[in-house]
Amino acid sequence: MRGFEIVRPDTMEQAIELLADGDPGVRPFSGGTALMQMMKTGVFVPDRLVCLKGLAKDHSGISVDDAGGLRIGAMATLSTLERDPQVAAHAPVIARTMKALANVRVRNVAAVGGALSHGDPHMDLPPVLAALDAVAELRGPSGSREVPVAELYTGYYETVLKPGELVAGVIIPPAAGAVTVYRKTTSRTADDWPMVGVAASLELAGGQVVRVRVIVSAATSKLQRMTAAEAALTGQAAGQEAFEAAARLAAEECDVIEDAHGSARYKTALVGIEVRRALQQASGGEAAA
Ligand SMILES: Cc1cc2nc3c(=O)[nH]c(=O)nc-3n(C[C@H](O)[C@H](O)[C@H](O)COP(=O)(O)OP(=O)(O)OC[C@H]3O[C@@H](n4cnc5c(N)ncnc54)[C@H](O)[C@@H]3O)c2cc1C
Description:
Layout: E1 5-7, H1 12-19, E2 26-29, H2 33-40, E3 48-51, H3 56-59, E4 62-64, E5 70-73, H4 78-83, H5 85-90, H6 92-99, H7 104-109, H8 112-117, H9 125-131, E6 135-140, E7 143-148, E8 153-155, E9 158-159, E10 166-172, E11 179-185, E12 196-205, E13 208-217, E14 224-225, H10 227-233, H11 240-253, H12 264-282
Parallel strand pairs: 1-3, 2-3
Antiparallel strand pairs: 4-5, 5-10, 6-7, 6-10, 8-9, 11-12, 12-13, 13-14
The protein binds flavin-adenine dinucleotide.
C-alpha cells in the first residue's frame, strides 16, 4: 500500500476546510470500517485521510429537541444507537436493526455519519432512517443544509454530498402513532449483508392507513421509496387484501439488480413477500409466511 498522511482536526469547521478543495485523494473517515475495506481492495488509494474522531466530543450526542424530534450526532457509534434509552423510546426499530448489523466490533467503531455517507445500497441503517422520515444535516464549505435520508442517494455508492461536505447529524421527527419495522433477508448468516432490506412505517387511525412509508434497499442500486405502493395504501382499510395489493405494486415498481446475493428475478419475488410481511408486522398482525 502506498504511504499516506492522516490529519486530525478538532472541529467540524477545521475538517471542512481540510476537505474543501474536493481533491479525490483526500477523504474523511469516522470509524474507518468501510473506508479501510476500500483501501485494502485498492478501490480507494488515499493521499491524505481526515480523521473525524476529534469531532466526537461535539458531534456524538443524542437528544430530544424542542419539537420532540430525536437528534443524533454523526459521530455517535452504531453500538450507542443499539443501547441508548432515548433511541429505544423514540425509534425502537433502530435498536433492533443494530443487533443484526455486522458484528459488535464493527458497531463499536462505525459511526452514523459513516453509515449514512458510504452509499453502499446494502447498508441497513439508511432504509430504516428513510422510513422514519429522518433528515440528514449536512455541513460544507458553503454552509449547512438538510436533506431527507430518502433523497441522500443518487446511485450505487453515490450520494448528494458535495466536495467538502460532511454529515453532521440526523434528525428523526416525532413518531406520532406510527409503527416502523425493518426486515432484512440475508443469503448467509442473519447478521450478514442483506440481499433484500425492507423498511415499512405505518400509521393507522380507526383501522385506516393515514401515513405509510415503504423503502426497499439492498436489492436495488440505491435505496428506493415505493411511492406507488404507498399511494395505493393510503386511505385504505389496513388488512391482508390492501397489503397484498401494495406488495404487488412494490415488486413491480422496484428497480431490482442482480448481484452476488441473488438474481434479479429471485429478489423481485422476495421484495413482494417482504413488503407484505413488513406491512402486516407494522399493523400489529403476524407476518404470515
Ligand atoms: C465485516 C463487516 C460486515 C458488515 N456488515 C454490514 C451489515 O450487515 N449491514 C450494514 O449495514 N453494514 C455492514 N457493514 C458496513 C458497516 O455498516 C460500515 O462499514 C459502517 O457503517 C461505516 O461506518 P464508518 O464510520 O466506519 O465509516 P467510514 O469507513 O469511516 O467511512 C465510510 C465512508 O463515508 C465517508 N464518511 C465517513 N464519515 C463521514 C461524515 N461524517 N460525513 C461525510 N462522509 C463521511 C468516508 O469518506 C467513506 O467514504 C459491514 C462492515 C464490515 C467491515
